[in-house]
Specification:
The protein is α+β, with helices and mostly antiparallel strands and 169 residues long. The protein is built from 5 helices and 7 strands. Helix content is 49%, strand content 21%.
Length: 169
């Protein structure tokens, strides 16, 4: 088992967001679908206000709210980061315990365990290790600056051993 303790900084979050947004093709696709979602939202609001009969105001309001959610999604949900920051501290110290089949994440007094397959749920770039849970329940980013040389070797050995199928229980 490998135990890693770390905290994420604002610069870490910027780097993770940069990696998530991806290259030019991914940005074009994201902007295209965002525009489509915004258009669907505006069209839905227009229908609720001008096309549907006015004898069901609660239904029209519900459909207009659904359209607003589409517009909000098309704009990449501005304000959501503030709400999430209010609900939990993104800079709280974290501890990950990684073994052959699961990842246990402790943060802010809460602990969650995720199933993990090291051969499929491991990726890295020049600044982070990315661990993805088995059913995409979580994608955890570990800054390489927080990992000691021995922990890095153990993590790489675990991934290569499980990928090769030589794991023993």
């Amino acid at each position: 088992m490998i135990a890693i303790k770390f905290t994420l900084t604002q610069e870490d979050y910027r780097q993770i967001e940069r990696a998530r947004r991806g290259g030019i093709v991914r940005r074009i696709v994201r902007v295209s679908f965002g525009s489509l979602a915004g258009f669907v939202g505006v069209y839905t609001i227009w229908q609720a206000l001008f096309l549907f009969p006015r004898n069901h105001p609660s239904g029209n309001l519900s459909i207009a709210c659904m359209g607003l959610i589409c517009v909000w999604g098309g704009l990449e949900m501005p304000g959501l980061a503030l709400v999430l920051r209010w609900l939990s501290d993104p800079y709280a110290p974290r501890e990950l315990r990684i073994d052959d089949s699961s990842i246990t994440c402790s943060c802010g007094g809460k602990s969650r365990q995720f199933p993990w397959r090291p051969g499929r749920g491991f990726n890295e770039n020049d600044k982070f290790f990315f661990l993805r849970a088995l059913r995409d329940e979580a994608e955890l980013a570990i800054p390489k600056r927080a990992v000691t040389h021995d922990q890095e070797l153990n993590l790489r050995e675990l991934v290569s051993r499980v990928s090769a199928g030589t794991i023993t229980r």
